[in-house]
Structures are given as C-alpha cells and as structure tokens.
C-alpha cells in the first residue's frame, strides 16, 4: 500500500503542474471561431498584443476580430458582442455545415489510388446529401480546393486537428473514413446445356438443362451438350467512418465489415454506416 501511495504522489503532482501550466495561458477567441492560446501582453485602443504559448514572436490582433478573451486568472472580457458595429460576428456561419474529406483507401494492405479515394468521397457526399434535411453539405470540389489552398495533403493532414480542419473549411462537422479492400480468393461457376433432336421429326426439338440419364425413343435421337465455366475474385471489405465537430470532438466512430464479397461491396457498407450516423435523417 505504501509503495502504491509513493507512486501515486508524483503522478498527482504532474497532473496539478499540467493543469497549472494550462491555466497560465490566455485564450483569445476570434469572431471566425479560431482559438489562440498564449499570452496577451497588452491591450491598446484598437488592437491587442499577443504571443503564442512557448513562442516569443509578437502578434497584433485587431479588436474588431476578437469575440472574447479568457485570461489565465479566469476573468473573461468580451469584444464585439453585437458584431462590433461594422464587423458582424462570423461564429455562426459554420453552423449546420458539413464537409466530407477524401477517404483513405487501402487495397491488399497497400495504399490505394487517389482517384479511388476521391471517388468514395463523392459517393459518400451523394449518400448524405440525399438525406440532408436542415444540413448543408459542402460540394467535394470546394472542400478539396480549400484543402489545397491551405496546404493540406494526404501526407501532412495528420499534423492538423479536426477542429482546425473544420475552421479551414468553414463547417461545423467533417466526415472522415477509411475503406479497406483485400482479395481473399476466387469462386468458380459452371453451366451446362443439352439439346435433344429427333432425326425422324426435324420439327421436334427439345432443350434440357442438366440432362440426366438416357432418352429412350424408337426414333434416332441426337444429344448435344454445351458447358461453360467462369471464375471471379472474392474480396473482404471493411469501412471505418468518423464524424468530428468544430471543437475537435469525435461524435461518431464505427466500423463495419461487408457481408458481400464483390470488389465494390464498399458502396453497400457506406450506406449502412451512413444510416447509423447522427447526421443522416430518415
């Protein structure tokens, strides 16, 4: 018991120090919803001097761009509650807006083609947009253009929080996911047909599928058989779907493996998962 307490005390002190370090920062909330965490060094008539935490570079923020400042002391000072006269607050502009990010696509445990990633993104947009109700879904071309302008690519997107991506896209929610398709084997199919003809009666012909046994007749009978076979690949498909809000909270996370073995079985699975989300209205 004494050993447990000795190990618990340092952990408790570490948590207290972390909370205290966070509390020593000021938080500037801008009208566009962006949060700036650091230190407010001076408040002037028209602007505010600010430095980010763990940085020394000074910034100047116009007061017209600030909604409120939460100081490290706990005091809150509001700016532009009514939009600041000339500047109308944009905090609500992103409300009920949704963007769908390009889905990660993995085939046979390797990175899939970017074209396929964007194809799934477009198909996901089509599924949700049909049931949008009071939501506004951002066109995927607009989403991708905004990501490119912000310098966000598949290689560096992990360096951004989903809250930051929401701000960049100007939406309240983003839908993100991954589709994994893996070849598991092959299935073979065969088909056979038999044609019976009576040589004494040329007008009398009979076709039978899967003829079994011998046809007995006093007339001479000819039997012709045709057979064909085909092979198709079997695939295992799994999808993970996430929804984040503009605060960076993950409000939906679910994965599902498809029952079907076709290569494009992901389409059925996308529909299934979409219906499970809080954004899909029936």
TrEMBL record:
Keywords: Signal. Residues 1-23 form the signal peptide. The keyword Signal applies. It comes from the Bacteria. Residues 185-207 are annotated as: Disordered. Residues 187-200 have a biased composition (Low complexity). The keyword Signal applies. This is Curli production assembly/transport component CsgG. It comes from Frigoriflavimonas asaccharolytica.
